[in-house]
Specification:
two-stranded antiparallel ribbon; 6 strands; globular
Length: about 775
């Protein structure tokens, strides 16, 4: 009894606290992975264990009734459960209601889903047996029966949602449908391009974008040997606000409406247009996770859309805003680059969040639309409470008055009152152990009940304020003129946007790890930090400068080697020595060697963040720390073989342990001691291990800094190229690794991977230094 109450109190407290504080920081439909793992593990054996304890409490009550047949306290236990047994049964029902909030709304069919559904149904059936077979009092059976009906209804709701997701062309079957749509759409686009149309840029290109946002499931389709044959509407030659003749809402429809509707919500908040673009891109990228290819024609089209369309529009809009500000030209260019980079990365970050919520959401936000809101949050509760009322009537054998009277008289909390019972228990808590345990049991029940109510309110808020519902509302607003003309409906969208603006949203973050100054913490335990704007700007600048529509003169993408050969940095007298540190087939070795060198330079030559060199330092140091984190925690996301990456990382650890004087000094020595030891190693002549190579490279960088060379600018460019280099991957293992990383909310490299996948950015088959040598050997 004591142990059961103690364990349940701890579980209920953790359940309430973890659910509360894991979600207060950010509005998300995804439960914190660590919290979800803990709660799922805790609940996996809950029902079997509690069923055993329920049986023990029931038998104990029956034994007490048999021993003391004349006692008033036990006179009713011959036909009714004891208070302890009823309390345990209440806990099982409440935990079963809460269990639904921990399990993801799976959208994939398969044996796992069917076995999970059978397991949930068996739990509900078992609880129904315990409630209706063991309780004889009408009032108690009505209360417990109502909770069981709620649990059964939640199960049916989850199964129905899953079946809808699995069978609908808007969700489960959307990937195949969209592949056929994109193939036919691009074929029509090529035919139009053959008529000599001039290439558009900026907003004009976006207004002609045919990427589907919503409605493609309504197209007439016919299955064929190569997918679905769709009946696409002929493009209109008239410059209309929206393509009202078509069932499909495209990115171009939304952009055209935003230009025409001067006083509309799309003009007031341009980020809504980009949110819809993110949604369209999410649908396209989902195909890679479901083993469907993305064609070269698509990547070429998307490359133009992002770099010649979205980026140019952002540049023009930012220039208009900055024209009214008093900044010098250099500062304006810097701000323009910063704003554009942040906005572009926001598009792809939102796309990854759509993917995360599609596969791992515990709230049905994927189905967000006005109709589902009406069905799920208005009609469904009405039906459920109708069944609860029916249960209430059946428990009273059709006598409603008797059933109502029994609920009041058979339940102490209702007949006596919560406050009186709590006051009575607290008054006797010191003298009576039974009063103490009863108080604890009551507190556990209240915590579980409050947690359930909190989860219900939170689900409703997450649904209302989700990006999914906002995209659906924007599509309704775009296609239906009565929505735009209605002050109520347009005002509703504005109110939701206002509330969303007051709530903290997710920032694009990454972890930082140092091989030298890790402080004894595991990489997974390190807190996340927001990706600096300088990093986003540097990556976007590199993509625009180096991969500009595939021009032949662009430097090949490399692990940093091409940066060292560029006109900007090739004048350095140390260029050949620096280049040798990049000439390795192992990306992991290059990352770790340059990471040690960057860490040594940062330790000895820090710069203030407010200077231009300080911005370069921030880019180099943060990208160095993040790449080291990927090596330590997510080797499967890097280009090298996972086992090979792990081997190199462990080898580096062993080398550091040997260099620092053993395992204890490696883990317990101060960061300053580690840095000083590496500086000593840099003076040695031998250069055989990665640690020695990194220390030597760090010493070389410090010599460059002493000569006032732009060493931080060089490192910023090198780490930027290296970060872009490790992001693209088309192999199935890497795609699977990125899909698995979505369970943790997605990584920064996954955002970059999405950008590269859409725009066709790939690594060259042959390393550029090897290609240069082969070219030099040719006669």
């Amino acid at each position: 009894m004591v142990f059961t109450s103690a364990v349940m109190f701890i579980l209920a407290t953790l359940f309430f606290t973890l659910n509360l504080f894991s979600r207060l920081s950010v509005l998300s439909a995804i439960l914190n992975p660590s919290v979800r793992l803990f709660l799922s593990t805790s609940l996996s054996l809950f029902l079997p264990v509690m069923s055993y304890l329920f049986s023990e409490a029931k038998n104990e009550g029956s034994a007490l009734a048999a021993i003391s047949p004349n006692s008033s306290s036990y006179s009713q236990l011959g036909t009714e459960l004891s208070l302890r047994a009823r309390t345990i049964l209440m806990w099982m029902l409440l935990v079963e209601l809460l269990r639904k909030k921990v399990e993801a709304i799976l959208v994939n069919a398969g044996v796992q889903w069917h076995s999970g559904t059978i397991d949930r149904a068996s739990r509900i059936a078992w609880l129904g047996y315990l409630v209706f077979y063991n309780l004889s009092s009408t009032g108690k059976k009505a209360i417990y029966g109502t909770l069981w009906v709620l649990a059964a209804a939640k199960l049916l709701q989850r199964v129905s949602i899953n079946e809808l997701l699995k069978r609908s062309f808007a969700y489960g079957k959307n990937a195949e449908l969209l592949s056929s749509y994109m193939a036919q759409m691009l074929q029509e686009k090529d035919q139009q391009a053959g008529n000599g149309n001039v290439q558009d840029e900026g907003a004009e290109l976006l207004k002609k974008c045919k990427y589907a946002v919503m409605g493609e499931e309504e197209l007439e389709m016919k299955p064929g040997p190569e997918g679905y044959c769709l009946e696409l509407k002929k493009p209109s030659t008239v410059d209309t606000d929206t393509n009202t003749d078509s069932t499909i809402i495209t990115v171009g429809d939304i952009w055209r409406l935003a230009e025409k509707d001067k006083d509309g919500v799309l003009q007031e908040d341009p980020s809504l247009k980009r949110l819809c673009l993110s949604f369209a891109l999410y649908k396209l990228l989902r195909r890679r996770f479901e083993d469907l290819p993305i064609t070269q024609e698509e990547t070429s089209n998307c490359h133009s859309l992002i770099f010649r369309g979205l980026r140019e529009e952002l540049l023009q809009g930012t220039e208009v805003v900055l024209s009214t500000q008093r900044f010098d030209e250099e500062r304006k260019e810097e701000l323009k680059g910063m704003v554009v980079a942040v906005a572009v990365f926001e598009v792809f970050d939102e796309e990854i969040q759509f993917l995360c919520e599609y596969y791992h959401s515990v709230v049905p936000v994927v189905l967000s639309n006005p109709f589902f809101f009406l069905a799920n949050y208005i009609l469904f509760p009405i039906v459920v409470w109708a069944f609860c009322l029916l249960t209430f009537i059946l428990c009273g054998n059709g006598d409603v008055r008797y059933a109502y009277h029994s609920i009041i008289t058979d339940n102490y909390l209702i007949s006596i009152g919560m406050m009186k019972i709590v006051g009575c228990l607290l008054g006797r808590i010191i003298q009576s152990p039974e009063a103490l345990f009863t108080t604890v049991d009551l507190a556990i029940t209240m915590l579980l009940l409050l947690t359930f109510l909190y989860e219900e309110v939170w689900e409703f808020l997450v649904f209302i304020l989700s990006n999914w519902l906002m995209v659906s509302l924007v599509c309704e607003y775009t296609t239906k003129s009565r929505w735009r003309d209605s002050r109520i409906l347009s005002g509703l969208i504005r109110r939701i946007l206002w509330v969303r603006s007051k709530i903290s949203r997710r920032n694009l973050c990454f972890n930082q790890f140092s091989m030298i100054g890790f402080g004894g913490l595991s990489p997974m335990m390190l807190p996340k930090k927001a990706v600096p704007m300088e990093v986003k700007k540097s990556i976007m600048k590199y993509l625009v400068a180096q991969i500009n529509d595939g021009h032949a003169h662009a430097a090949p993408l490399s692990n940093g080697w091409s940066t060292l050969q560029s006109e900007k940095h090739r004048q350095s007298q140390y260029r050949s020595q620096l280049s040798l540190a990049c000439e390795s087939k192992s990306v992991t070795e290059v990352i770790l060697i340059w990471h040690i060198a960057t860490s040594l330079l940062d330790r000895n030559f820090p710069l203030q963040n407010k200077t231009s060199m300080g911005a370069h330092r921030k880019v180099a140091v943060t990208l160095s720390g993040y790449c080291a984190y990927l090596v330590a925690s997510y080797p499967e996301l890097l280009p090298d073989n996972k086992d090979g990456t792990t081997h190199v990382y462990k080898e580096m650890q062993e080398q550091l342990k040997n260099a620092l004087g053993g395992c204890w000094r490696y883990h317990l020595s101060l960061p300053g001691t580690r840095y000083d030891k590496l500086v000593e190693i840099s003076k040695e002549q031998e250069e055989t291990t990665m640690v020695q190579m990194g220390a030597k490279l760090g010493d070389l960088l410090m010599k460059m800094a002493q000569k006032q060379e732009d060493v931080w600018g060089l490192l910023a460019d090198l780490w930027t190229e290296l970060m872009v280099y490790v992001a693209p991957s088309g192999g199935e293992l890497h795609v699977k690794a990125h899909k698995e990383a979505l369970a943790q909310g997605g990584e920064f490299i996954t955002v970059l991977w999405a950008l590269c996948t859409h725009t066709g950015i790939t690594r060259p088959a042959i390393a550029p230094w090897e290609a240069q040598r082969h070219h030099a050997l040719e006669p």
